[in-house]
Amino acid sequence: MNNEIKAPRGVLVKSMGFSLALALLFTLVANLLPQVEGEAPVDQKVDLGALTMESYVALGETLFSGKGTCSLCHNDLGRAPDILALNMVEVANQHLQDERYKGSATDAESYLHESLVDPGMYVVKDYGKKGSNDTISPMPAVDKSPIELSEIEINAIIAFMQAKDGHDVTVSLPTEEPVAEAASPEVAESADTIEAVVAKYSCQACHVILGSGGDLGPALEQVAGRFTREEIRQGIIAPDAVIAEGFPPGVMPQDLAEQMTVKELGILVDYLAGGGEFSAVPPTAKPSDDNADSRVEAVISNFGCQACHVISGSGGKLGPGLDDIGARLNAEQIRQSIIDPNAVIAKGFSSGVMPPNYSEQMSEEQLDALVVFLLERK
Ligand code: HEC
Ligand code: HEC
Ligand code: HEC
After folding, report:
1. Nearest Cα residue to atom 22 of ligand 3
2. pLDDT tens across 132-151, in order?
3. Which CATH topology does 194-273 take?
C-alpha cells in the first residue's frame, strides 16, 4: 500500500534547516500511518513441495472463513448448518442413508465433495430455498463464480471438515502443479473499482450485483430508485437497523464498517445509488458507549493527526488547531476536510500538506468516530 506522502507543494521553504525538519516530519508521519490490512478473502499460496497434511488442513480452515466464504452462511446464526459445531463426517453418513438423497456419493468424502459442487443433491431439512419445500438448495456451487474454488481448494476444505472432529483425512495431498491456479497476489490495498470492492467483500455470495450472485439477500441492482444514498449506506454498514422485507436479520455481515475503507464504501454507495458525488454522505454514527473516547484517541494517534494539529491541547502547528473545529465547521465539512483535504483549504494554511489518502486507509467507522469527536470540540 502506498504510504508515501508527497512533498508539500505550497509550503514556502525558507531555509535548509526547515526543509530538513519537514522531511523528517513527513517520514515520521508516514511511519505513524497504520498498515491497514484488508481482512477480506485472500488467496492462499500453496507450495506443493512443502505441503504436509497438517498444512493442507490448515489451508482448508483458512479457505472456510476466507475465499470460500463458507462462514458467511455456515455459522451459529441458523441460516445454514453450523459446520464448525457439527461432526460433518457423521452428518454425511446419515444423509447418505436418507431416502431424500439424490446424488451418487458412496462415502463421507464423496458426499462432502458433492455437497460443495452440487448442493441440490441433498437439501438439509428446513434449509431449502423458501417455498421449494426443501427441494432447492440456496447454497451456491463453490466451484463456480463467484466463489470459484479450485479442486485443490475444495479438497483442502474437505480435509479440514474431516480433521476438525478427529476423523482420518481421506482426501489425498495434491501432486500436480496447480500453483498458478491456487496462488494470486494479496489484496490488502483499498479496492478502487466496483468490481474489486464487490469481490473483496463477497457481496455476490448473497446478493445479485453486477449481474450475478446469490439470493440470500435482496438483489441490489434495483435499490437505486427505492433508497436514498444514506439509506443505502446504512444498509451496508448497519444492516440490522432496517431489515429488508422478506429477508432474515443477522445474515448480512455486521462488521463491514470496520473492514471497509471510506473509499470502498463510497464506491459501493455511488454504484448502488446510480452515480452521484463520492463522499457526499453525512456521518450519522453516535458514540454509543463509554469506549468511544478511547477508540477515537487510538484513531488520532494511529493516523498521526497530532503531528500537525493541536487536539485536546497538544500537537503540532503545521495545520490549524482543532480544539474549536466544531464551532467552525459542520459534520459534512469536517468529514470532507479529512478525506479530501485539498477541496477546501483552511485560511492561512497550505494545500498539499495534509495526507490526501486517508479515505483509502481509514475505515468508515474510524472516520465517523473522528467526525463525531471533532464536532464536539468547541
Ligand atoms: C450463501 C450461503 C452459503 C454459502 C456461502 C455456503 N453454504 Fe454450504 N450450505 C448452505 C445451506 C443453506 C445449506 C443447507 C441446504 C443444503 O443442504 O443444500 C448448505 C449445505 C452445506 C453442506 C451439506 C450439509 C449436510 O448436512 O448435508 C455442506 C457440506 C456445506 N454446505 C459446506 C459448505 C462449504 C464448505 C462452503 C464454503 C466453501 C459453503 N458450504 C458455502 C449455505 C451456504
Ligand atoms: C452472508 C450474506 C450477505 C453478504 C455477504 C452481504 N449481504 Fe447485504 N444483505 C443480506 C441480507 C440477508 C439482507 C436483507 C436483510 C437486511 O436488510 O439486513 C441484506 C441487505 C442489504 C442491503 C439493504 C437492501 C434492501 O433492499 O434493504 C444492502 C444495500 C446490502 N445488503 C448490501 C450489501 C453489500 C454492498 C455487500 C458486500 C459488501 C453485502 N450486502 C454483503 C445478506 C448479505
Ligand atoms: C502532515 C500534516 C497533517 C496531518 C498528519 C493531518 N493534517 Fe489535517 N490539516 C493539515 C493542514 C496543513 C491543514 C490546512 C490546509 C487544508 O485545509 O488542507 C489541515 C486541515 C484539517 C482540517 C480542516 C481544519 C479547518 O480549520 O478547516 C481538519 C478537520 C483536519 N485537518 C483534520 C485532520 C485529522 C483528523 C487528521 C488525522 C486523521 C489530520 N488532519 C492529519 C495538516 C495535516
Report:
1. 337
2. 899 999 988 999 888 888 88
3. Cytochrome Bc1 Complex; Chain D, domain 2 (1.10.760)
